[in-house]
Amino acid sequence: MAEEMDRGGPTGQCGHWQLSTLATERNRSCRWSHCQCHQSLPKGWSAEAGRALRYPRRPFPPPSPAKHIKASLARRLGQRSPASAQAQAAKPPAEVPIPEHGGGGVGAAAGEVERELDKSFGYDRHFAAKYELGKEVGRGHFGHTCLARARKGDMRGQLLAVKVISKAKMTTAISIEDVRREVKILKALSGHSNLVKFYDACEDALNVYIIMELCEGGELLDRILSRGGRYTEEDAKVIVEQILNVVSFCHLQGVVHRDLKPEH
């Protein structure tokens, strides 16, 4: 028997069509409780079935709450959506003026951008007069660390550690700001008994010099390995307590370490 819907006219005040007894298996129901459909259900229907059919499935999933986050990250990283990239590709390339005095084209433009970077930090420029630089003891991606000895002042003759950061490797404004922030953080954290002491920051035309306390105790990782990777609970408790004190002090200064490990 074919299932049909009685479309004789609306019932109640909701304007929905009443289901006939022949349409008992159709996934159609009324959502309004004042409708006659709920007052007199067709034969074979139950209130539970009516409630189950009252809210049909959404035809589309709800919008993702992470879309705006992804979009902001894409803008920050310089990425573009396929639609915007296609629109950009459709635009004609901008005309680049030819330099009249034999300029270097793209290379000259890049050099001009680099010259516009302000690599003056405002630090003391008398490093050579105040400190005697010694041998190199470590090297990283942006600089290296050397031994140094103070020439004058209260620290005269004292051995120090100097981090030398080359200005030639500061090719972006972000890298310059990273150096400023490093010095600022070292100043803010100086004074804790379990943190390296910061003494001074100097610069010249080529480098930035960060003068700090010389720590000759070695790395925690080397001590762990020297014991065969085993630490008693009493010995580990002393080290963990110092680490937690340092982390708490950093947090009070608004600094998060983000790279805690035995090597550091």
TrEMBL record:
Residues 131-264 form the Protein kinase domain. Pfam families: Pkinase (PF00069). GO terms for molecular function: ATP binding; protein serine/threonine kinase activity. PROSITE patterns: PROTEIN_KINASE_ATP, PROTEIN_KINASE_DOM. ATP binds at residue 163. Keywords: ATP-binding, Kinase, Nucleotide-binding, Repeat, Serine/threonine-protein kinase, Transferase. It comes from the Eukaryota. Residues 74-101 are annotated as: Disordered. The keyword Ribonucleoprotein does not apply. Residues 81-93 have a biased composition (Low complexity). This is Protein kinase domain-containing protein.
